[in-house]
Design a protein that fits this description.
Layout (H helix, E strand, L loop, with lengths): L1 H12 L10 H4 L4 H9 L15 H17 L6 H8 L5 H19 L3 H7 L2 H21 L3 H24 L14 H32 L9 H44 L16 E3 L6 E3 L4 H52 L4 H13 L2 H93 L5 H12 L23 H20 L21 H14 L16 E7 L5 H12 L2 E4 H13 L6 H14 L6 H13 L6 E5 L5 H10 L36 E6 L2 H13 L3 H6 L1 H32 L3 E5 L4 H43 L19 H17 L14 H5 L1 H4 L32 H50 L5 H13 L9 H36 L3 H39 L47 H33 L9 H79 L5 E6 L2 E9 L23 H14 L4 E3 H14 L8 H4 L3 H11 L5 E3 H8 L8 H14 L6 E3 H6 L24 H13 E2 L6 E3 H8 L5 H13 L21 H17 L8 E2 L1 H8 L19 H14 L8 E2 H4 L3 H9 L9 H4 L5 H6 L4
Helix pairs in contact: 3-4, 4-8, 8-25, 9-11, 9-12, 10-11, 10-12, 10-13, 14-15, 14-23, 14-25, 16-27, 16-30, 17-30, 18-26, 19-20, 19-21, 20-21, 21-22, 23-25, 30-32, 30-33, 30-35, 31-32, 32-35, 33-34, 33-35, 34-35, 36-43, 37-39, 44-45, 45-47, 45-50, 47-48
């Protein structure tokens, strides 16, 4: 694992410092390299702030910055791990790097950046990690000690160690042995005592100096731990005790010495001699003891002398030992003194390090020696206070620096977060732009597809109509195209029998409705197809509106449904300013409005504040107030987890607006948010929230109001101003972060979660505003024109000034607008007075517009009609329904001349009487019984609906009939063409005649009688062929007559029926209109007439005439017809249409005349009541009624005449097209017959030529329909057999073996090594024997015979593996080159074919299955056959090479032989690059493409085999394509068994029981290694590991690099002579 990590760090990442497994702990102890690894993966953006040193500051900085990134990757990293890394503990860095490697690889696969990971992290987890990071940083500062503290600690430890060594050396206890009296004992004793005294003095001086030196050392800093102080005090006490012990021992030694001297004196007095030279004779001598006057007498005897001598020897020995001990003690004391001196010098060095000069040290030493303890204590206290002060100043400076560093870091972090937020905003904006682009692209795509459909439709229709496109069809297609509807009908995939259960397609319904409306508009406007035909005579135009009927209908509707007048007064008082300020998040709305409210007294209404107040009112118990009820509703919605509805929010705001005092202003803060809230606010404040779409005219209104009211002017917007604070996204994000930074530390610590959520919502709130602002901008800017923009990317003061300026301008404009209308009202009142005086004279009569020769274009008919209908619907009457007489608005305006103050109408002067229905005509509005309007108004609506629906239904039937006629004519033509080309019996007759003609022998053909007989037979053949043609012509004529029989009459009858139905609809409309007008005017003229329950219609079609043609009902409620017993003879179509037309006109005339006669009769019968009613009123009613009836009569006659003309035109078009079709069929018949006759004549001429020449008809005579030709491919006379070609021979090409030579070598090698593996030495020996024995037998190519030993050794070395073995199948494949080289795709395809042939899934196939399976090259190649029969046929090299491959790889030990196809394909997977060869073989075994990169083309050029050259080029192109598309291949999984099959391919060829070659790894060992590799990568042995992962393992890479068994070897390089550069390229394989 360490090697993998090292390879990852050094090779893949290429760190700035090379790492080794042994130095992991040291290299990663400061965290710099870990940060560099994360920076390589673009996760550590602040890597430039990392420090590369090993100081504590660097470690603290690096590990503080690493912790958030590791937590983001999901790696556990706490203070203990950081401390272990700093202390260089073994295994910690390796474990951390392994976790980091796994996490980064997963991130690399998922292709997720660090920014996306931060965004995807939940807000709660992000807050928790931030808190943990703060705790981690504080603890890390406590754990990591500063460099100064570490240095001082090392110095103090070093000083303590030196002091301990000095103490150990200075204090040594030595045993003191009793001293013997020596010579000159007193003198020496005195000298020793003097030396000891001097030594003690020196020792005391040293100790005092040491104490002085100890006092000189400055006090340890305040941050030194108490434990170190206690240890030092304890060591000092121990040194003092040791010194006291030494002094005690010296004093004891002196006491013992004195005792020994006293003991010597005592022994001398008892007879023991002193030290010295005494006479040893028998005489006694006297001795005088110093300090005493006593004289001792010594007796001389032998024993005593011996004792004395013995004592003297002992004393001499003791003295020598004592001197040695004394000298050793003095030496040790000297060494201790030198150690003290060394310690003193080290202390001086320490003092230099702690910034104390020698002068200060000498001064302190002198003061400590001279001054008293009190001065020393005072100096120490002052020094300590100075150190404390310095420490405080240093800590304060460090705190300032730390705070500044944290501030810089926080600023950097804030800038980084702002940058990330801006990047996120940019990504969202890009996604929004991308979505808009997709939307526009989809729209453009749909338009292009519709245009393409139109072109296709035109092309299809050209086939149907003979390259003629009707103008009507083109208009329909264009209308559907402009309506974004498909031209083609949807494909119906329903089953038979389920037609009624399938729902109707809404798109198809919409298409039909659009086409119906278009046809209806053309019909009513008399344009396009329904324009007035030129054949009908004088051009007539659509009738004008019947003003009288329109007035009647409008009056009836106003009586039944009175119009409700909207209140004109506003429910709100006058405000000086009504505005809303909008803007994105943090645009400065609230701050700026707060200043404006404080400065100008304007009320600021914020939705959030109002909601909080409503909730507070509800919680405070204000039950009766409206605000409390609104708060209760809001609380209910919030408890359910829903947002507050827009309706409730608008109600809350409206309630707040009501509480604003009059003559003051108010501004909405951030409301409305979307277009729905804007519409609700507009409606709630009395405005109009119309979307602005144009009013579509109603087609069912057949009579428009002659005096339509003026359309009301659109109300003014309820708001005076909509102010947008425009600010860029960068400024928004910056303000959001600055807002959180300005909060106090307490607020931030208590609301850290709120701060995080606040910042997280920034991007979403910006996106939400941009999504809704587009519609708001259209509403306030384009619709209401109250939008103003202010650039808010400025400071607060400048923004306040700009907003204040805009508001002041609006308020000034509003004050001016309030003053101006008052002046206008005064002017309007004076204008009305003058106008009323001038209105006393009636206006002149309006003349009807003169007809013009211009007719509207077909394309403009729909739009012009829509505009007319829209205008007519908008111009609804506003007659006063409150008065009992119900006068119209026109009558009320002209009351000065037509009505007296009591409401009684007066007749105008006769000279100025207007025409009924003109604009100056005063309509009669006499009172009506209440039941009359209740009956007539819905009855008129039913008449209009029935008329429009019936007209549309007829138009749809006509449109469908037109399509049926087009398709029927096309089908007739196609069927007749196919019928003309039907087969006949002429070819059989001609073939039999030719066979009989050729049966005549050649010697008889020159005879004249034979020729005459043949000419006679030819004439008989021609006559029979003519008879067949004549018979076919008669059949064709009958078929032509049968195809056109009856259909023309049927379609003509259908068309006539449709037009008759349309006439019936017009007649019904006239009859219903007449009934309504009669009832209306009779109700005003006299008592209430009897209301008819149903009207008797005047039918134009008899139901018994044609039951197959549908007869449209007149109306849903009226279905009466004439007596069914009447029958009429069938008339021709044109006469039937004309008779219906005449009948309709006659019926209209009868109805009008009957009404006129009835009116005159009633006038005569009711002359007495004339006194009750003024005569002028009755005359006016009759006059108005007659004018309305006349107008309807003229309009009905014009429309019925139009229907007749259109029907005759369609009949004429149908007959002309039918005649054209039948004439075309006649022309085809004649041309077909003439062509048949011509082909028969051509056949006769050819046969006569052969008869005259006496030759046979060698080629077949072919007479197919109208074509005659000689079939050169069919010979009717047998030709002389050509001699067979010699068997094909294979020609050797240079050093390439023939198939025969390869089979010979195969037999030799299989005999020697059946397993397929042979040692290199045996193979070389076998090759020599074959060349030597078969010399001159043509068993090997010529270049093989002339080669020397070195070249053969080179061939053997190319084929030898690491175990000195040669796979002779590889040798034979290399010797057989060039053969078509397969690509990996071809290998996998062949593998699938082999598996399909292997039905039992055994892995083996037999030879028959092998021959039937297609390989990557064709078995046979197309080669030219030589014309010379003596030349041999071309050799099928590929077919024989295919058979040789089976013999090479098949197992011949079983019968029949079988082939292991996977093993064979592994051989063909070889590649000049062993790595690519291994991957190809593994792909074959696993059966799938494995992702890899090809370094180049495999085969640049091979020795060509003629036909195989093109195949090789195709294979090279396919390899190139595979290389180009390798990135798109799937990353397949590889199992252990697949790897074993590839690795142990050679081992499996060896027989069971044969020992493996030395060094060869067994299959079991490979299995264990692969299992270990899988487990090391985190997979189980049963899993399939992705090859991209597996290929990165060193074990797999080693296998791929060393797999020589899959290397394609080219031995032709060795066999051929070295060519030049051009020739070398032609023989390059690897």
């Amino acid at each position: 694992m360490s090697d993998i990590l090292c390879r990852w760090l050094n090779e893949e990442l290429r760190l700035s410092r090379a790492v080794e497994p042994k130095t992991f702990a040291k290299n990663f102890s400061n965290g710099y390299l870990i940060g560099e690894v994360l920076h390589k993966y673009q996760l550590q953006n602040d890597f430039s702030m990392f420090m590369k040193k090993d100081t504590s500051i660097s470690k603290l900085n690096n590990f503080t910055r690493l912790e958030p990134t590791l937590q983001l990757l999901g790696i556990s990293f706490d203070i203990n791990t950081a401390q272990d890394l700093m202390q260089e503990k073994q295994g910690v860095a390796t474990r951390l790097l392994y976790q980091l490697y796994v996490s980064l690889e997963k991130k690399k696969k998922s292709d997720i950046s660090g920014t996306v990971m931060e965004i995807m992290q939940p807000a709660a987890n992000a807050g928790l990690h931030k808190k943990e990071h703060e705790i981690y940083s504080d603890r890390l500062h406590q754990v990591v000690r500063r460099d100064a503290e570490l240095k001082l600690q090392k110095i103090s430890q070093h000083y303590e160690e030196k002091c301990q060594q000095w103490s150990d050396r200075s204090v040594m206890n030595h045993p003191i042995q009793p001293n013997r009296p020596l010579k000159g004992q007193d003198d020496k004793r005195m000298k020793n005592i003097e030396k000891l005294r001097v030594c003690r003095q020196k020792h005391n001086g040293i100790m005092s100096y040491n104490q002085a030196a100890i006092v000189q050392v400055p006090k340890p800093p305040p941050y030194t731990s108490q434990l170190n102080l206690k240890k030092r005090q304890h060591q000092q006490q121990r040194r003092e005790q040791q010194a006291q012990t030494v002094q005690t021992e010296i004093a004891q030694f002196e006491t013992n010495r004195m005792k020994q001297v006293t003991f010597g004196f005592a022994s001398s007095s008892s007879g023991q001699p002193f030290h010295g030279d005494f006479p040893l004779g028998g005489s006694s001598q006297g001795c005088e003891v110093p300090g005493s006057g006593t004289k001792l007498v010594l007796q001389s005897n032998t024993k005593y002398i011996q004792d004395i001598r013995q004592r003297l020897e002992e004393n001499a020995l003791a003295r020598e030992l004592r001197e040695k001990r004394r000298d050793r003690f003095l030496v040790e004391q000297l060494k201790a003194h030198e150690a003290q001196e060394e310690a003193r010098r080290e202390e001086q060095l320490v003092k230099r390090l702690t910034r104390q000069t020698q002068q200060e040290q000498r001064l302190v030493a002198q003061l400590l020696q001279v001054r008293m303890q009190k001065d020393v204590i005072r100096e120490n206290r002052l020094f300590r206070e100075q150190q404390y002060q310095q420490r405080r100043e240093r800590d304060f400076q460090e705190a300032l620096e730390k705070e500044a560093a944290l501030a810089r870091q926080a600023k950097f972090v804030g800038a980084e977060e702002i940058r990330k937020e801006l990047e996120f905003c940019s990504r969202i904006a890009a996604e929004r732009a991308q979505s808009r682009h997709k939307k526009h692209f989809t729209i453009c795509k749909d338009v292009v597809e519709q245009i393409l459909d139109l072109a296709t439709k035109v092309g299809e229709y050209r086939l149907l109509t003979g390259n003629l496109i009707p103008e009507k069809a083109m208009r329909e297609w264009k209308e559907l195209l402009f309506s974004s509807l498909p031209l083609y009908e949807p494909i119906k995939g329903q089953q038979p029998g389920f037609e009624f259960s399938t729902p109707v397609d809404p798109v198809e319904i919409k298409k039909q409705e659009i086409l119906k409306n278009q046809d209806y508009d053309e019909y009513t406007n008399m344009v396009g197809e329904w324009a007035w035909p030129e054949e009908a005579g004088e051009t007539k135009f659509p009738s004008t509106n019947n003003n009288i009927l329109g007035h009647v209908v409008q009056r009836l509707r106003n009586i039944v449904r009175p119009r409700i007048m909207a209140p004109s007064s506003s429910p709100f008082p006058h405000f000086t300013l009504k505005a809303c300020v909008l803007g994105t998040f943090c645009s400065g709305k609230t701050t700026c409005l707060a200043k404006i409210a404080e400065a100008h007294g304007i009320y600021v209404l914020s939705a959030d504040t109002l909601i909080e107040e409503a909730l507070s009112a509800y919680k405070n118990g204000e039950k009766l107030s409206t605000r409390a009820m609104q708060g209760a509703a809001a609380e209910k919605e919030l408890r359910k987890g829903n947002v507050i509805p827009n309706e409730l929010l608008v109600d809350i705001i409206i309630e707040a607006v009501r509480k604003v005092p009059a003559q003051s202003g108010w501004i909405l803060d951030g409301f409305p948010v979307d277009i729905n809230q804007a519409h609700l606010l507009e409606k709630a404040m009395g405005g109009s929230a119309d979307d602005g779409k144009g009013f579509v005219g109603c087609r069912t209104n057949l009579a428009a109001d002659p005096n339509p009211p003026k359309p009301p002017q659109p109300p003014a917007p309820v708001l005076d101003l909509a102010l947008l604070l425009d600010v860029p996204d960068e400024c928004v994000v910056r303000r959001a972060y600055n807002k959180t930074d300005t909060e106090t530390a307490a607020a931030i610590s208590s609301c850290s979660t709120d701060k995080t959520m606040y910042l997280a919502q920034t991007t979403h709130r910006i996106s939400a505003f941009k999504e809704t602002w587009h519609k708001l901008e259209k509403w306030f800017g384009e619709k209401q024109n109250i939008l103003a923009r202010v650039d808010a990317d400025v400071d607060e003061e400048e923004l306040y000034k700009r907003v204040e300026s805009v508001l002041q301008q609006v308020m000034v404009q509003r004050e001016e607008a309030v003053v101006t209308p008052q002046v206008e009202d005064v002017m309007l009142e004076s204008g009305k007075a003058s106008k009323s005086s001038s209105s006393a004279t009636p206006p002149p009569l309006d003349q009807p517009p003169a007809p013009t020769n211009k007719t509207p274009r077909p394309t403009e008919s729909c739009s012009s009609l829509n505009e007319e209908k829209a205008q007519s619907v908008k111009s609804l009457s506003k007659s006063n329904t409150n008065s009992p007489r119900g006068h119209s608005r026109k009558a009320s305006t002209s009351s000065a001349t037509t009505e007296d103050p009591q409401g009684v109408s007066r007749n105008p002067p006769e000279a100025a009487s207007p025409c009924p229905g003109s604009p100056s005509w005063v309509f009669v509005d006499e009172p009506l019984p209440p039941e009359i309007p209740e009956y007539l108004s819905p009855h008129w609506d039913a008449v209009c609906d029935s008329y429009v629906n019936n007209v549309k239904a007829v138009m749809q039937q006509l449109r469908s009939q037109r399509t049926v006629i087009d398709h029927h004519l096309y089908n007739i033509r196609q069927e007749y063409k196919q019928y003309l080309g039907r087969p006949d019996l002429k070819q059989e007759l001609v073939s039999q005649w030719q066979k009989d003609f050729n049966s005549i022998t050649d010697d008889m053909r020159e005879d004249e009688d034979t020729k005459a007989e043949l000419h006679l037979r030819l004439d008989e053949l021609r006559e029979r062929l003519w008879d067949i043609s004549d018979k076919r012509k008669e059949e064709d004529e009958r078929e032509r007559a049968a195809l056109g029989e009856g259909w023309l009459e049927d379609h003509s009858a259908v068309l006539i029926n449709h037009h008759s139905v349309l006439m019936q609809v017009e007649l019904d409309r006239f009859q219903d209109t007449l009934c309504i007008l009669r009832v209306y005017y009779l109700s005003m003229y006299k008592q209430v007439p009897e209301l008819p329950s149903s009207l008797d219609c005047i039918p134009l079609l008899d139901k018994d005439q044609d039951e197959s043609v549908p007869f449209l009902p007149r109306r849903p409620e009226s279905s009466k017809t004439k007596g069914q017993g009447q029958t009429e003879p069938v008339k021709p179509p044109q006469e039937k249409l004309i008779s219906d037309y005449q009948e309709a006109l006659t019926a209209i005339s009868k109805l009008v005349s009957a009404e006129a006669h009835q009116g005159e009769t009633k006038e005569q019968k009711e002359k007495p009541p004339e006194k009750e009613r003024p005569k002028t009123s009755a005359n006016k009613i009759h006059k108005e009624y007659a004018a309305a009836l006349g107008h309807e009569e003229n309009a009905a006659q014009v429309r019925i005449a139009l229907v007749k003309g259109h029907g005759l035109l369609m009949l004429h078009s149908l007959h002309s097209r039918a005649e054209q079709t039948f004439s075309s069929m006649e022309k085809w018949l004649q041309a077909h017959y003439v062509a048949e006759m011509k082909s028969i004549d051509q056949l006769t001429e050819v046969v006569r030529h052969h008869i005259e020449n006496g030759a046979k008809l060698q080629n077949e005579l072919v007479l197919e329909c109208t074509d005659f030709y000689l079939n050169g491919d069919c010979h009717m006379v047998a030709s002389q057999a050509t001699p067979p070609h010699p068997p094909p021979l294979e020609k050797p090409t240079q050093c390439t073996m023939t198939i025969t030579q390869l089979q010979f070598l195969l037999q030799q090698l299989r005999t020697v090594a059946p397993s397929g593996l042979i040692s290199s030495s045996e193979f070389l020996c076998l090759l020599r024997n074959i060349i030597t024995v078969n010399m001159g037998r043509n068993t090997l190519p010529e270049p093989w015979i002339d080669k020397n030993e070195t070249q053969f050794m080179e061939i053997v070395s190319l084929l030898t593996d690491d175990y000195e073995l040669i796979d002779w199948r590889r040798f034979l494949l290399s010797a057989a080159l060039p053969w078509p080289f397969p690509s990996l795709t071809q290998l996998l395809e062949v593998l699938q074919r082999f598996k399909a042939a292997d039905t039992g899934d055994t892995g083996y196939i037999e030879e028959e299955q092998y021959q039937q399976t297609e390989l990557w090259f064709s078995n046979k190649s197309i080669q030219p056959v030589p014309e010379d029969p003596s030349e041999p046929l071309p050799y099928e090299c590929l077919g024989n090479l295919r058979k040789f491959f089976f013999q090479l790889f098949a197992d011949h030990s079983v019968s029949p032989p079988r082939l292991e196809y996977v093993s064979m394909l592994q051989y063909f997977a070889a590649d000049p690059n062993p790595r690519q060869g291994f991957i190809r073989a593994l792909s074959v075994v696993s059966g799938q493409h494995l992702k890899h990169s090809l370094t180049g083309h495999l085969v640049k050029s091979m020795p060509s085999i003629g036909e195989a050259t093109e195949l090789n080029e195709e294979y090279k192109e396919e390899e190139t394509q595979l290389c180009a598309s390798s990135s798109s291949l799937g990353d397949g999984g590889v199992s252990v068994s697949a790897l074993l099959a590839v690795i142990c391919h050679k081992v499996t060829k060896m027989k069971i029981g044969c020992p493996l070659p030395p060094g060869c790894v067994s299959q079991q060992e490979y299995t264990e290694q692969l299992v270990d590799v899988f487990r090391e990568m985190g997979y189980s042995p049963e899993d399939c590991v992705p090859f991209s992962v597996l290929s990165q393992h060193p074990f797999t890479q080693g296998l791929m690099e060393t797999s020589t068994q899959y290397k394609l070897v080219n031995i032709h390089r060795v066999l051929l002579p070295q060519p030049d550069e051009g020739e070398a390229n032609n023989f390059t394989v690897s």
